[in-house]
Specification:
43% helix, 14% strand, Rossmann fold, alpha/beta, 2 domains, six-stranded parallel β-sheet, seven-stranded parallel β-sheet, single chain, 18 helices
Amino acid sequence: MRILFTSYAEKTHFIGMVPLAWALHNAGHEVRVASQPELTDTITHAGLTAVPVGKNHGLGRVYAITQRVAAEESEFDFAEDDPEHLPWEFLKKKFEAAVLWWCRLVNDPMISDLVTFARHWQPDLVIWEPVTFAGPIAAQACGAAHARFLWGLDLFGRIRSHYVRLRDEQPPGERGQDVLAEWIGLRAAKHGGRFTPDMADGHFTLDYTPPSLRVDTGVDYLPVRYIPYNGVSVVEPWLRLPPQRPRVCLTLGTAAVERLDGYALPVYDILDALSDLDVEVVATLRGVDPERVPANARVVDFAPLHALVPSCSVVIHHGGGGSFSTSVINGVPQLVLADMYDAPLKGKLLADQGAGLTMHTRDVTGAKVRECVQRMLKEPSFARRAGELRQETLGMPTPGDVVPQIEEAILRHRSR
């Protein structure tokens, strides 16, 4: 069969798909990855065949503007699940804004090219990153089955379900259009299609979140174990040696410097606060002044987390999907310093499980981080619960294990 993966050009959203793409390739299926030109090198460095489509998006530039606007208005929390905090007019305004500045912005530059390629190549399945709605549009245009691949908690799916439910509760004359359905429908109509409900959440959804941490929206989830992949990586000599003291990893992802304005956290304050602990700090940070790095810290631009995290006693991170899931599958307690999208909720769910601690970025100080690190090093319950989460994750089917289920799903849902 032919399998087409697609994601708008965001490296951190794509790389979680790579192990499944390899598994499908190794099972004998033809695999292609379609994205905007900016992602081409990332795809080919993963050993996969890239199909550049459309033009690059401008989400990074728009994000800076929306952040300034958000400071002037009440903020919208995608993780909110309490109906009292989601009145219809507020939810309508914020959800529709998200569709306009996020979904449309990243998809519109690639839809037509993706549809053209899909009709040419005739994939049997399109697997799409959960905001890349160009995927189901292309799948419908060529009669393929399609599936979402989640890179985090299914917050967009849950908030949309709230939006649809509240919209349906309004008097018929006051409902207005379902903005996501209307936008997808207009784009699909250009290629002879129409909106159908599966275009919002897939014929099925691949999810590597362990069940105890999952946000369930009632769709057809196909669990798949998270397999760490960090792109082109080198294990340097220092990382081949076991640490002489408890190792603490501080990693804040790549998007902060590649997409945004830099780190939102006081990194020097954190490093200074950890400087008198009997630990070895490894910080994967860019642009740090080496003169300000304490003696017990090693700062590197990049280290492959799948090689670094297993040697650590604690991981401090921003709540990104790769950092979070790599720590979970290695059974390492985490301190999640979060402020964006699903990161605060992931931190809370982790803390509720007793496998880590969390705080919002606005509350972060070096002293608070130090206190949390000391707790996780001294209290064995954190390592024990992190180990139990690891066992839960290892109990999930591997990408290779789910290939037969994916093949069966294709036969059920493919319309061609």
